[in-house]
Amino acid sequence: MELNKLELPKWFAGEIYEKGDVISNPQTNEEIELNNLELSMYDFIMGSEMLVEMMGDKTPSTYKKYLNEGLDWFEKSNPTAYKFFNFSK
């Protein structure tokens, strides 16, 4: 699947920010700049990971599916930031 860096997946229903921002890695305190779409997906991923952690085995499979698809999108869209945050699938 070829990815346009300027588009979010059709399934994405999260908030799409107008501006990007600088984000800190919570483990290293290093910073990286994300564009508006990357920041939107980053927040979606972080929220989804928290939800999966809280719900454990009760997490609906669609949540896990979209989390994995979000991680795939981020890895293809910005491999440097993907590695920076040490996301895991």
What does this structure look like?
The chain is mostly helical and 89 residues long. 49% of the residues lie in helices and 9% in strands. It contains 3 helices and 2 strands. A two-stranded antiparallel ribbon has the order 1-2. Strand 1 and strand 2 form a beta hairpin. Helix 2 packs across helix 3. The radius of gyration is 13 Å and the shape is globular. The two termini are 18 Å apart.
Strand arrangement, major sheet: 1-2
Give the overall average pLDDT: 86
Q: Gyration radius, to the nearest Å?
A: 13 Å
- The H-and-E topology, N to C, reads as EEHHH
Number of strands: 2
Helix content: 40-55%
Q: What low-confidence regions span 5 or more consecutive residues with pLDDT below 50?
A: none
Shape: globular
Going by helix content, strand content and strand pairing, the class is mainly alpha
